[in-house]
Amino acid sequence: GALLAAGLPAALAAPGAPASADVPCSVPALVLAMTAASAGTTLSLAPDCVYSLTQSLPPVRKDLIIMGNRATLERSTAPATPAFTILRADAGSLTVSALNFRNGHRAITVSGTASLTVNGGTFSGNTAVDGGAILDRSDGDGPKVTGTFFLANSATGAGGAIFNISGQAGVDLLHATFVANTAGNGGAIYDFSVDGQHVTSSVFTNNKAAACGALCFFSASSMRFTDVVVRGNSATGAAGGISATANEGVEIDGGQISDNHAGGLAGGLYLDGIWTRVSGTVIDGNSASDGAGIYASAGLMTLTRVTISGNSASGYGGGVYNDWAGQGTRRSHSADGSQISGNSAAAGGGGLYNTINGTFTLQNSRVLGNAPDDCEPTASVSGCAG
User: Which distant-in-sequence residues (6+ apart) come within 8 Å of 52 by Cβ?
Assistant: First the structure.
């Protein structure tokens, strides 16, 4: 008791407590530390060190925490360096904090029973077929990412920065930033999950893809976006900003979807679900063939305190293109406390083009100043003069 009171280190005072180790600025030292680490070990890397790798690090198969201290794990830029993934996790819980990844043939791959948590750090210049920075195909939940920056990662297939096809929940993002990532589908993220995705207070800018300039999300349940900024992303095909498809519903709360472009439909936002709810969001300056601001194929869509302005379509639906056939089922859609103004569509429905089998009702909302008209077809939107 006297020894404990005098401050005996916890690792000595309590046998079996998680171990910790400082790792010098040396690749062999890092490899040795990872190989020797017991379950629950925390490895603290040398501050600001660049660990230049010529092959993958040992696979992680137990709980492991890597404190980066702003260090960088980099696949060597020397000529003839083979392509390899920097870090792999097959089992256990892997947490990386304040650690940068650069030039990997993917930075991190997660599979089997492993799980990944990323706190801080930067992923830059990583590339792969799917998931330029992170690929998660584990049996459990997708990656949890907080305060992390993804810059100029690329995938020839899907998910320029992150590709997630894990067995349970999708990505869980908080204060993450994605800039200038590219892919065939999902310039920043491609995610196909069972239990849905959560994106909070995150930013997506200047990402590019053939489809889904920033985000391609698919869920067997529902998904939620809160205070997300999606700006200046582009797709040569459909969905310049976000494509969100859910078997249940999609909820978007706050945030801004601006200045995104699609060569096909859905410049800013593509919505598909049994229900979709958008509230307190600004959707402006987007462009597409149809549905420049929003292209919705939703069973029940509600827009609450939403501002949709300055969007431009070369076809129909400058502000909103609402396209739900519903297989004979009539649906009731509405805008409450919202404004759809200053949008344009070359073929018609500058503000709102509505083809649903049902009603679209305006409640305390205004559709005005759109070109060449506010709503089409005539009388398809209750409360809109046309």
Answer: 27, 74, 76, 77
